[in-house]
Automatic annotation (TrEMBL):
The keyword Lipid metabolism does not apply. InterPro entries: CheY-like_superfamily, NreC/VraR/RcsB-like_REC, Sig_transdc_resp-reg_C-effctor, Sig_transdc_resp-reg_receiver, Tscrpt_reg_LuxR_C, WalR-like. Keywords: DNA-binding, Phosphoprotein, Transcription, Transcription regulation. The keyword Methyltransferase does not apply. Residues 2-122 form the Response regulatory domain. The modification 4-aspartylphosphate is found at residue 52. GO terms for biological process: phosphorelay signal transduction system; regulation of DNA-templated transcription. PROSITE patterns: HTH_LUXR_2 (PS50043), RESPONSE_REGULATORY (PS50110). This is DNA-binding NarL/FixJ family response regulator. Residues 144-215 form the HTH luxR-type domain.
Length: 218
């Protein structure tokens, strides 16, 4: 796995690089600003980019803008975005083009090494990884949505874990239920959110995006 890191905090940047190299992962470049990050993506053709949301010069959304541009240049690039706190607008913007190979984690998650590495591998393998704390805050903001109100408490639990990027077996393990029960809950979620089986879009991604977009509008 070839990795480029874009983080303007030098201590965190080098700490991430050391952690990943200790796991025998190939960190091919570390950068501190969006321009150097995009140049590194062009030069090194990485599999994964780890990108801070807020970067120079204004420390607003430069990291997200650079991540979107990197994906435009290299659509198969997996991107794991790090943020100091929940910024649902950025999470929604990043996922708007489709959820494959994308992650959004709070920086504090890096200290939980196994969880961080699991998220990194998940996005590298084509999945999504949304921080559980982000999901919890977004879910709390969707209570008034009429379609989401159709969901049972257990269906909400399943949707929240889907939003984290977990597959059916991982959801079943987390909730201590069978795979069949999870499949049934997901089928019910699709039905209650009016996501037809013949929709051309990935219904799993669409359900999560609807959840995130509704949260962003509140």
């Amino acid at each position: 796995m070839r990795i480029v890191i874009a983080e303007d905090d030098a201590l965190l940047r080098e700490g991430l690089a050391m952690l990943l190299r200790a796991e025998s992962l190939d960190v091919v470049a570390t950068t501190g600003n969006p321009d150097d990050f995009l140049a590194a993506v062009d030069e090194h053709d990485p599999d994964v980019a780890i990108v801070d949301v807020r970067m120079p010069p204004t420390h607003t959304d430069e990291g997200i803008v650079a991540a979107v541009e990197a994906r435009r240049r290299k659509p198969e690039l997996a991107v794991l975005v790090l943020s100091a706190y929940v910024e649902q607008a950025f999470a929604t913007e990043l996922l708007a083009g489709g959820g494959a190979r994308l992650g959004y984690l709070l920086k504090e998650r890096v200290g939980r090494v196994e969880e961080f590495l699991d998220a990194l591998r998940r996005v590298r393998n084509g999945g999504t990884a949304i921080d559980p704390d982000v999901v919890a805050q977004l879910l709390a903001r969707t209570r008034r949505d009429t379609k989401l109100e159709r969901l049972s408490p257990r269906e909400r639990d399943v949707l929240a874990l889907m939003a984290e990027g977990l597959g059916n077996s991982a959801i079943a393990e987390r909730l201590v239920v069978t795979d069949g029960a999870v499949h049934k809950h997901i089928r019910n979620i699709f039905a209650k959110l009016d996501l037809a089986p013949d929709d051309r879009a990935d219904r799993r991604v669409t359900a999560v995006l609807r959840f995130l977009e509704d949260s962003n509008g509140r």
